[in-house]
Structures are given as structure tokens and as C-alpha cells.
Design the sequence.
């Protein structure tokens, strides 16, 4: 292992691509004739295929969940603090799989992929994808990897919603489900924030109704705005206060519309760099997947009925200052599970960082995560 | 009084204009050589001029605080439920003054006014105005109305900040101050939301660096976005949930980017109508006035020192689900006042409506408001 990569890292990793020629019909009614799923794996699948863990990513995440793609990488994968040898999801014991979801922009088929009907990128013609569609395509990946049953399906935020949907839709295919910083469905306020983000993207004249690729441009301002707004909802008021307070960018107030406070500078920088990297049509799709997520809807709105299908044991985690999906929303999940006599562990973690906490190495959070995964290992791995 | 105007309304009212030829130097260092202040009054000023109440408006408010401008008006002034005969601020006893602030877009000199230097609208060249500037110009209006001391200065949100600044800057000129749904200064999160709003306006290609008037256009999309976002912060998650929940606009889900949920439809409608009525440059100025408000800054950051100047008796009111300026922010004001041995009454009102609650006829809120103003009347009005 080279010097600059930490010893408890999974090290250098390479993504793999699964190309599927069998058409997939999506919840919206449209079908993709063929598609790619890009994924990464860490650790080794054991002979009984009992040690596989599926990680589901959130809104702007992707398959690169741990380790490094190249020695030059400044940052490891997005959940590197959780996945690796000796970490909460210990790659000495588990085989970890993480894929870029359909509709994504990091290798799996999505709006930036070529539409075989037109030989140009799908762009806005890529169909709406839902959490159900992702579970369906993730199950196809599992089939191809010869994984009949996951030891656990794990996710935070929109990833937690996928994990929950797995447990409801394919109850026999997972032994444990870890639902972190999620909710049974979006509130009107959650949808409202998504709608503002979408409106910002669509209002950008460089959006060109989604066909920005053929105009050789990007809706940078609109996507940047969407990201700025997202960022505010990921952080708590407290975390922003601690990090930036009312610190001025310069020594004194300038009475003008240039950056005055550090928080403005931070948001501008974050949004500009994001807008160069992420695809706006994918961003739109991800917000719609969030809006539409509502497993109760298949059970006449009865969420308890939905979770009654679950066979997996459940760990639900929330964070005290998360106001995007507050602890109360996790408690709705827990209460429904308890009402259906499911086995559920719940932890509300004291954390100042808001929704982003689920990505951060907070010790009580990681302690619980580690302890739970040790229990999973002891159950699923033959000694 | 015509049939269609309620008996407890102040009835038909006409705005007045005070034209000032004496230049005013603003906190930013720039001066306006002359300016107009548009205002409305309700009730009668008594002979001892002891019964005058100043109402300060919030971000998108104006001087039209009560009654109707015309029989055809669908809605009365923005605080009609508080001001009128027999209401909390009883116009049988009090003389109520409300003006459009400098920088506004409803008659007082602001970005839509003609810049005497260029004979075209000021537009983005209108100088930055602050809460201190408003207090200064409001005091000039008071001088012109022959009001040496207000019985009370009253405001909610940004209006509450002006009321607080009055009590700090001109302590002898008010006997009471009512600070409703306000804060001692904005948090990083508050500033962040303002920055997103400003970015949305400035990103609109119809903004033309603020010179949209000379291009015969309006930055409707940008201002609409800013308003949509504002709207989310004015309502509580709870209030939005009660009002809209996840109600669909049509009978079933359409899997597309048209309006799917009622909340989206509501936000789109609200933002479109606002963007036709309000001036974008004014909106930018108002958000900056909010950002810059920080009375402690003149006292080396010591807020208690700032409020130590206050001679007025204080009523501070907050609302439980207000997350824009939460009860904790009002408690900071109360605690500072108590630490300086000021006379302060504090009420935290149970209300589901979020920040908007300060505009609504919530009975416990109005009961306290009414009782307090009766006390004010008994103190200031000769029997």
C-alpha cells in the first residue's frame, strides 16, 4: 500500500460495469432497452455469499463509496470513514457493494448517456426513476453478483429510503436494514425545497429545456443555486453558526452586493464547484425520486401495513439537529415497525451538524454502527 | 361607511407624501439630496401628541397597514386585524403612523424613483439602506408630524428590528417598544437564505445588472424564486403540512416535471404574482438591511451594552413554530434586557403557523397585544 493511503483504507479501487441487455420497465411506464450499472466492491464475497452489504447512495452520491481511484485523489469515497478494514462496515469480514443509481451521472445509464433511439444524450428525455426502480435494478445487480440475500442493505437520507424500500419490496433478500437520517416520505416543506431547486435549474437560460449538452453549455447558475439551497438544508443553523457565524470576508462592511459574510463566500464556492461536476438533469431526477417516495402509497396510505412486509431486523438512526429529516420522522418509522412487532433498534444521536451528520465520523454514531455490524457479522458469517 | 367595509375597519384611507429637500446621509456614506416618504395615518393625534404609534413594516410590507384604498380593494392593509376601532391598536385612542421605508417600491424614494443625477430610475444605483437609516428617516417624519415621543414603536420581523433600533438609538423618543418575531441579528443560516435569494435574482438574465427598467423588462423568474424560498421560511413545516400535506394537484401521479403536488402549485402561483408587484432591486436592498442589522456592532459586539441605552418599556413576542426567528432568538433579546434591569414582558405564543404567525389573528397573541396596548393607552392618554 503506498505511503499516502491510510492503512485502514480499502486502498485503490476500480469501478466495474455491468451491462444489461434485458429491457427494464420503470414505474413511470417507460422502459430502458439496455443499461449500464457502474459499481464498486470492497472486501471479498465469501463462499456462502452470506457476507454481502449493499450501500445505497443519496441525492448527489455515487458508487465511489470508499478508497481511492488514483494516488492523486485528494479525497477518498464518500463514506470512507465507515467502510474499510476495522471500520464500522469492516471489509475484513464483509463484501461491500455500492452502485451508481439509474438516472445518475457517474457511469450508470442516465441523462448523459446516449439514447439508442436518437444517438444523442438522453438529456431531459431520460424517464423519471423512482426508489422502486432503483431497488429493482439493484436486485438485478445482486443476481448478477450471485448474491441471493444481503447481510444488510444500508443507506442514509435518500439512501435510507432505498434501504427501507428493499426491506418492504424484497423482504426475503436481506437480513438487516440500516435506515439512517431518513423519513417515511417527504413533507410538504421537503417537496417545497425541491421545487425551488428545480425551478432554479429550469429558469437558467443555459438549461435549454434540458438539452444543454447539444447547446454545448451547462446550466451552472441554476444548478449552483439548487446546490446552495440544498446545502443550507443539510447543515443545521447551529453548525453554520459554529462554522461561519457572522464572520466578515473582509475587515469591514462594504455596503454592497459583493460577498460580505464568510457564509456567502462558502456557498458561492460550493455551488460553483458542484455545478461543474454534476449533471442538472440527474439532479432534477433525484429530487423527483425523493418527492415520489412513499412506500405507504401501495397500501392505501397505511405505512404500518407497508412495513408489516419487512422480515429484516432494523436499525434506525437519526440526528438531533437534522431538520431536513428530523428525529420525529425516524420515530415514525420506528413506531410503525414496533406496531407490527418488528425487531428494531433506534438511536437518536446528539450531533450539531444537521442532516450532514450521517456522513461524519461522530463517535457515538460510529460506535453504535460498529456494534450493530459486529452483531450482523456474528449472525451471517460462518465461524 | 359603505356596506362592504367592516364596521371595525379604519375604512377608506389615502396615503400622504412628505417631500424632504434636506439631504440625508446614509450609513453607507452616500447621501440622497432629496426624498419622499409615503405614509398613512389612522385615528387622531391628540392635543398633547402623546397617543402616536409608529408601525414599522417588514421585508415586503409597505405603508398600507390598515383599511382600504378603494371600495374595489379585495384585501385591507397588511395588519388590518391589529389596527382599527376596538382592535389591539385601537384607533379610537391611538394615532397610528406607518410609512413605506426608504429604498421601498411603494411610493417612498427607492430604486424605482428617478435619480436626479441621471433623470432615469436609480435602479441598482440606489444606495444600500440600513435599519439605522430607516430609524433616522422615520424620526424626520415624526418631527414633521410634530411627534416628539411615540407612545409605542411596533413591528414584527424586520419591523421588530426597526422598533428595537429606535429604542436603542433614540431612547427618549418612545415610551414603549413592541418587538415581535424578531432577533438581535441574523444567524449564518438566515444570511445564507438571503444570499440564495439574491443569487437567484442576479442570475436572471432579465435582471440586466439591476437596469431591467431601461430594458423594459422584469427579472420575474429570479424574484419569483426568491419569494418562493422566502415563503418556505415564513411557514412552518407543520403549517405547510396542515395546509398542503402531500395532496396531489391531479388525481394521480404523472411522473413528470409539471406540477404534481399542491404545494408546488401554491408556490408557483405566489411567486408569479409577487414578481409582478414588487421591485427586485428593493428586494435586494431589504435582504441586505436584514443581513447588516446588528445593534451590538456599535458596542463592540456587546448586545447587553446596546440595550442598556433603552428607556422604553418592552414587549417581546415570539411564536413556537417560527424557525426563521425562533423563540430562542427573542429570548436572547429578553435576557439582554433583563441583564440590564429593563422593564420587559415576554410572551411565547403557541402557534402552528411559523414566522407568518405575527401577521395572523391568533387569539392568545391578540389578547396579549390588546392588553398591553390598553396599558399603554392608560399611561399616555390624559383621562
Sequence:
Amino acid at each position: 500500500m503506498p505511503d499516502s493511503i491510510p492503512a485502514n483504507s480499502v486502498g485503490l479501487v476500480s469501478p466495474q460495469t455491468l451491462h444489461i441487455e434485458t429491457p427494464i420497465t420503470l414505474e413511470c411506464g417507460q422502459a430502458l432497452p439496455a443499461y449500464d450499472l457502474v459499481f464498486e466492491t470492497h472486501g471479498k464475497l465469501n463462499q456462502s455469499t452470506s457476507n454481502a452489504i449493499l450501500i445505497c447512495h443519496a441525492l448527489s452520491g455515487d458508487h465511489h463509496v470508499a478508497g481511492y481511484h488514483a494516488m492523486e485523489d485528494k479525497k477518498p469515497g464518500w463514506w470512507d470513514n465507515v467502510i474499510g478494514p476495522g471500520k464500522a462496515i469492516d471489509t475484513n469480514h464483509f463484501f461491500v457493494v455500492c452502485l451508481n443509481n439509474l438516472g445518475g451521472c457517474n457511469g450508470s445509464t442516465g441523462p448523459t448517456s446516449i439514447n439508442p433511439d436518437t444517438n444523442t444524450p438522453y438529456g431531459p428525455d431520460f424517464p423519471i426513476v423512482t426508489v422502486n426502480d432503483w431497488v429493482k435494478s439493484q436486485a438485478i445487480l445482486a443476481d448478477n453478483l450471485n448474491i441471493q440475500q444481503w447481510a444488510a442493505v444500508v443507506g442514509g437520507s435518500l439512501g435510507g429510503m432505498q434501504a427501507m424500500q428493499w426491506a418492504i419490496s424484497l423482504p426475503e433478500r436481506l437480513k438487516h436494514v440500516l435506515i439512517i437520517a431518513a423519513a417515511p416520505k417527504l413533507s410538504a416543506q421537503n417537496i417545497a425545497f425541491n421545487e425551488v431547486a428545480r425551478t432554479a435549474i429550469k429558469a437558467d437560460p443555459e438549461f435549454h429545456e434540458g438539452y444543454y449538452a447539444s447547446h454545448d453549455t451547462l446550466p451552472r447558475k441554476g444548478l449552483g443555486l439548487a446546490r446552495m439551497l440544498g446545502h443550507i438544508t443539510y447543515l443545521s443553523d447551529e453548525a453554520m453558526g459554529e462554522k461561519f457565524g457572522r464572520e466578515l470576508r473582509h475587515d469591514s462592511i462594504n455596503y454592497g452586493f459583493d460577498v460580505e459574510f464568510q457564509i456567502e463566500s462558502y456557498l458561492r464556492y460550493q455551488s460553483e464547484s458542484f455545478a461543474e461536476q454534476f449533471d442538472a438533469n440527474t439532479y432534477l431526477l433525484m429530487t423527483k425520486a425523493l418527492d415520489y417516495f412513499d412506500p405507504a402509497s401501495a397500501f392505501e396510505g397505511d405505512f404500518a401495513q407497508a412495513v408489516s412486509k419487512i422480515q429484516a431486523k432494523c436499525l434506525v438512526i437519526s440526528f438531533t439537529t437534522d431538520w431536513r429529516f428530523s428525529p420525529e420522522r425516524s420515530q415514525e418509522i420506528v413506531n410503525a415497525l414496533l406496531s407490527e412487532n418488528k425487531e428494531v433498534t433506534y438511536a437518536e444521536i446528539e450531533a450539531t451538524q444537521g442532516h450532514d451528520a450521517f456522513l461524519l465520523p461522530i463517535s457515538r454514531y460510529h460506535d453504535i454502527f460498529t456494534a450493530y455490524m459486529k452483531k450482523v457479522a456474528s449472525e451471517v458469517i460462518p465461524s
